[in-house]
Amino acid sequence: MKKSITIFLLIFGLIPYLNAQTEPLEERLFELPDVIFTKIDTPDNYEAAYELKIKQPLDHKDPSKGYFYQRAYLSHKDFMLPTVMITEGYSANSNRVDELTNFIDANQIRVEHRYFGKSNPPEIDYQYLTLEQVAADLHHINTLFRNLYQSKWVATGRSKGGATTLFYRYFYPEDVDVSVNYVGPINTSYEEQRVYKFLDTVGTADCRAKIEKFQRHILENKEDILPLIKAYSVGAKASFTYQNIEEAFEFSVMEYPFSFWQYGSDCNSIPDDNASAYDSFLYLTQVSDITFFSDQTMIDYASHYYQSANEFGYYGYDTSKFKDLLDELPTDKNPHAAFTPNHMKVPFNDKALKGLNAWLPKHGNKIVHIYGALDTWSASAVPPSDKVDALWFMMIGKHHGTANITEMTPSERAKLTKALERWLSITIEN
């Protein structure tokens, strides 16, 4: 008799859950508060896809301050599968399915970062652009969509999005089952000193010497190269009022080593002293484009630079080697690469950064950290710890754009597969 009652309770207790899983997706989306959805093209092998507008408080601690709508993209496959939340560090303009989502066969929600793209209030008030508020945005989305997707959850992001994934896990450690950080830098100070050590030791001594020699060559031939850059900027419709074009030119030369290693440039492609002004200009533009320092870029990345100056920390440029060649940039101190909106003064608050750096080595369980050994941002990689159940991959010969699962060696991929299967209680067919 007790056995029959138990079976009865089990079966009928499951009915509401099973009904929920078979209810059409759109009907379930209608039931979610704070969510507006629009059907969009569905990726291959998925059942449906929607662009979402999710109502978020400007200040999660005081909703009376106002709200904005955050853009996200939902790609739905099956309610019973895991869900991957992509924590973008910048704008999100499509519902592209990421490699991790394919790797574990999951639903996906791609979330645009607060104060980027279309996820802006009518007027920007930077006091609400904090790591804690960003994490609270993600927590609200997780809370809403757990009503639909009750299986395992994974948060992941690349670069600044990878760092966002880690801060999200720090502020809300129970929200997701696994976090995967692709090339996400976690700095230790306002001006990350480890970047300088990286640039002084990466690659071969010969390659580093060629990089510095090319920088000097560009600056020594400024009179011939700058007119070419000015003509190029006109064609690119790039204006320079945040900083003048001479400053931007010197910044692009100082940025060159960082960009060279970040995206894996070839040492053999560096022009020598005999290169023409045009060839030297063309090569510099391919690696460190001056439009990166244009007014439009300052506008597009204003929120990023604010965050870097306020909480993330960032890198600077060592100008001391070029004292005899720089006319615009200071050589008695390292100019910082965080170009704050309208040159506003931003006080640095390292509370969240210190908190995360202290939390990760002791509590950062079920986290995968993937970095490229050639990537300049690997200087700010999360250090390995044997006190947590986590994985680190420092992929040899890979950079900011190639530190991916698809680029892993068979042994690296097997190690990752084993951990994800254990943490998510799934079988990965790859």
The CATH architecture of the largest domain can be given as 3-Layer(aba) Sandwich
Shape: globular
| Percent in strands | 5-15%
Classify the helix fraction into a percent range.
40-55%
CATH first level of the largest domain: Alpha Beta
Overall pLDDT metric? 95
The span between the termini is 46 Å
Rg to the nearest angstrom?
Answer: 24 Å
Topology summary:
Layout: H1 2-22, H2 25-30, E1 35-39, E2 48-57, E3 67-76, E4 83-87, H3 99-104, E5 107-111, H4 131-145, E6 153-158, H5 160-171, E7 178-182, H6 194-201, H7 205-220, H8 222-235, H9 245-262, H10 277-287, H11 295-300, H12 302-312, H13 351-363, E8 367-372, E9 391-395, H14 410-424
Parallel strand pairs: 4-5, 4-6, 6-7, 7-8, 8-9
Antiparallel strand pairs: 1-2, 2-3, 3-5
Helix pairs in contact: 4-5, 7-9, 8-10
Task: Output the keywords.
single chain, 430 residues, alpha/beta, Rossmann fold, 3 domains, nine-stranded mixed beta sheet, 9 strands, 13% strand
Describe what this molecule looks like in 3D.
With 430 residues, the chain is α/β, with parallel strands linked by helices. It is built from 14 helices and 9 strands. It has helices at 2-22, 25-30, 99-104, 131-145, 160-171, 194-201, 205-220, 222-235, 245-262, 277-287, 295-300, 302-312, 351-363, 410-424, and strands at 35-39, 48-57, 67-76, 83-87, 107-111, 153-158, 178-182, 367-372, 391-395. The protein has a 9-stranded mixed sheet, sandwiched between helices. The longest helix is centred in the first third of the chain and has 21 residues, at 2-22. The relative contact order is 0.11.
